[in-house]
Specification:
single chain; 379 residues; alpha+beta; 11 helices
Length: 379
């Protein structure tokens, strides 16, 4: 999920493990450990977009990573806490700088962040009193809860790395305010109480309980809507080989279904606020035959692994194939006109094919969200 959510979850876990002993430092280091797995986004500085996406949520999101790095982080906190804070927080705050096109400017901005943090922490930061063993426990739980949460989203998480299996339970969108905001408010409120306070303890636990309850709710709604989509496909006589359902952006009320009809994908929406259980499916041609011109089976296999064979092919204005990942459900730029936005442009240069990730129609995100917002409340 998004970085803010992972930071909140890590802070709450840190508080449970070590809050009564070190107070807000437990939240601070839990939040840091909770976002460390996502530092794998820096791979995009080294690799092309396809390779970076293949590696994202790989080793850094595995049980093995958590087990190996928890002792390392615990040692750093126990022996080099101030310097570790400077380095790690600099890397975390540097997330947005990845989009800066100039590499020299990136390095300068990261350096500025590091210098500012150093002078902030130089005199006022006091070492923690917890043992290395206690820090190891905090780091382990804060690290491992990150990929466990990510498994609930659609991207896919290699929790069992190096095994080539990506877990994706598709029951929550990567950003969901109803999960994050209440959780965040309770964790922030807990910070203002003394570490031995019972109120602090129960504020933190309340945040954990509410967020967990919402996750259970999302699984229940997924099961409920999945059955409705199945029933509609059967009633309408639509023949399909497999079916996937995902929540639409930032909510668990409106769900999108995609059924694989071999040469077409059937997509439909259902909201729990709909007055009836009828789902109108729209057929979208898969156009897989347009890939015949791409004579690079290795590249196509890599793309198919990422998309789990859920994809639609279109052509750009220069007749280059666009490989659109259909796992996330379509974007609705106009009502009843689905469009798959996330994907790769396939280009041939000097006899070699490569995949370049497209930015998608960013200017159309606002109208899309407006359409989905209105659709949430039923038809």
């Amino acid at each position: 999920m998004d970085s803010i959510t992972q930071i909140v979850l890590g802070a709450a876990v840190g508080e449970v493990v070590l809050g009564r002993k070190v107070g807000n430092k437990a939240m601070l280091w839990g939040a840091i450990a909770g976002t460390i797995p996502d530092l794998d986004v820096y791979q995009s500085l080294i690799f092309d977009s396809l390779k970076a996406n293949e590696l994202h949520r790989g080793f850094s999101h595995s049980i093995l990573f958590s087990v190996l790095f928890a002792p390392i982080l615990a040692w750093l906190v126990s022996h080099k806490e101030k310097w570790s804070l400077v380095v790690i927080i600099t890397l975390i705050l540097g997330f947005p700088l990845i989009t800066v096109p100039n590499i020299e400017l990136k390095l300068v901005l990261v350096g500025v962040i590091a210098v500012i943090l150093y002078f902030i922490l130089k005199n006022d930061y006091k070492p923690s009193i917890a043992s290395q063993r206690e820090w190891r426990k905090l780091m382990l739980w804060s690290l491992i809860t990150h990929p466990l949460l990510d498994c609930h989203t659609t991207w896919g998480t290699q929790l069992l790395w190096p095994l080539p299996y990506k877990l994706a339970w598709n029951n929550i969108f990567v950003v969901d305010p109803l999960y994050t905001v209440p959780f965040l408010l309770f964790v922030i409120s807990a910070m203002f109480y003394a570490r031995e306070s019972t109120t602090r303890k129960w504020l933190n636990y309340t945040g954990i309980i509410l967020s967990t309850a919402y996750m259970v709710w999302s699984l229940g709604v997924k099961w409920y809507t999945y059955r409705i989509f199945e029933d509609n496909l059967e009633v309408k006589g639509i023949i399909y080989s497999r079916l996937t359902t995902v929540p639409t952006p930032a909510n668990t009320f409106l769900w999108s279904a995609t059924a694989d009809g071999d040469s077409v994908l059937y997509t439909g929406l259902y909201s729990i606020f709909d007055k009836d259980k009828n789902v109108d499916f729209i057929s979208v041609p898969s156009n897989h035959a347009l890939l015949k011109q791409v004579r690079d089976t290795t590249l196509l296999n890599r793309l198919n692994f990422l998309s789990k064979d859920w994809y639609v092919i279109t052509l750009d204005s220069n007749s280059n194939p666009i490989y659109s990942d259909a796992r996330y459900g379509p974007m609705y730029i106009e009502p009843n006109k689905p469009n798959y936005g996330f994907g790769y442009q396939l280009l041939e240069r000097d006899g070699k094919w490569r995949a370049e990730q497209g930015d998608g129609p960013k200017e159309k995100i606002k109208p899309m969200l407006s359409i989905l917002w209105n659709r949430i409340w039923g038809k």
